[in-house]
Structure formats: structure tokens, C-alpha cells
What we know:
Blueprint: E1 2-7, H1 9-12, H2 27-38, E2 44-47, H3 55-60, H4 62-65, E3 73-77, H5 80-84, H6 96-113, E4 118-122, H7 136-156, E5 161-162, H8 165-171, H9 177-180, H10 189-204
Parallel strand pairs: 1-2, 1-3, 3-4, 4-5
Helix pairs in contact: 2-10, 6-7
Amino acid sequence: MKILFQGDSITDAGRDWNNDAQLGRGYAHLVEASLGYSEPNQHEFINKGISGNRVVDLYARIKRDIINYKPDVMSVLIGVNDVWHEIGDSPNGVDADKFFKIYCMLIEEVKEALPDIKIMILEPFVLEAGATENHWEFFKTETAKRAEMAKKVAEKYNLPFIELQKGFDELAKKAPNSYWLGDGVHPTAKGHEFIKNEWLKAYKNL
């Protein structure tokens, strides 16, 4: 079974862009370790997350980095850059309505090209820390809107939706925000472990 991880820097996690077998240091690598151990030699794991991607960037590479690989299972984690890129001198974020529209186009085209594919949608998330604290209310409000739209996409196409924000909020009661998301956006090893656990729960129910 071929499993494809798609998304932004949270999925990318320092992967080797020249070697598909090197999945980086994030949840994709942890899923590979856990699933590869429990189900030996049954899966091929591919990580095509790209740092900085918004949903429009992911959609732009739909053929090259999704359809051409013909995965059996794909998970998608996208949304925080659609918010983050709106901050600065040259705003280039993606508003919630367009986020939903493009996300739907992505799913529809993937399902049309690969009718048997199983897709899981991961919820974008954020905590207040280094990269987010100066614009915290904006990050919190707008990321929640993208999360709502990601859930609407999952519901529209009857796909599993992996909730993550509530879990990070609960974890933040046990240790500082930066313990889980170093800068408020990018998970630490412990944060990736949480995502991995939630990913595996959803995968086992596919």
C-alpha cells in the first residue's frame, strides 16, 4: 500500500527532496516507524509536503506530487500558511472561502483521477508562542476559520477529519505551548508524536 503525506512545512519537516524514502523528522517519519514496524513490508511511504505551501500551492502541484504517484492513501495537512502569509508588507494569504473552494477542487480532481484513493483531512492548528504571539488574535481567529473549512471539506466528501487543535489546547495545559509547538506553528518532536498518534487512529478506521 502506498501512503502519501501532503501539506506544508509541518509535513515537510526537513525531508530530503531528492530522496522520497527520507521522510524528514516529523509525524510522517513517526508514522512510517510505527506502521512499518507493526505491519512489516506492507507499505511504501512518500512525503511530499513543501514548506511554505498554501492550499493554492498544493493545488498547483496536484498532478506532479499527488496523481502521478497513484497513492492508495493520502493525508493532507494544510491551512496555517493561508493565514500566516497574510501578515507582512505584501499579504498573500488565502481567505477562508477561497480556501474551501480550492480544497474542494483538489479533492474532486484527485478522486476523479484516483477513484479508489482513501483520503484523510488533518485540522490546521496554532498555539500562542514566538511566531504567533505578536498577531495572536489574528492567528487564532483565522486558523480556526481554515480549520472549519477543512472540516467542511471532509464532511462534503465523507472523509475522515483528524481534529488536532483541541488536542494541542489540552496538551498546553500540561506544558508550555512551545513544548509542543516550538514557535506556535511548527511542532516539536513531542508535538509530532501527538499528530502521529491521531493519524494512526484515523488510519486504522479507514
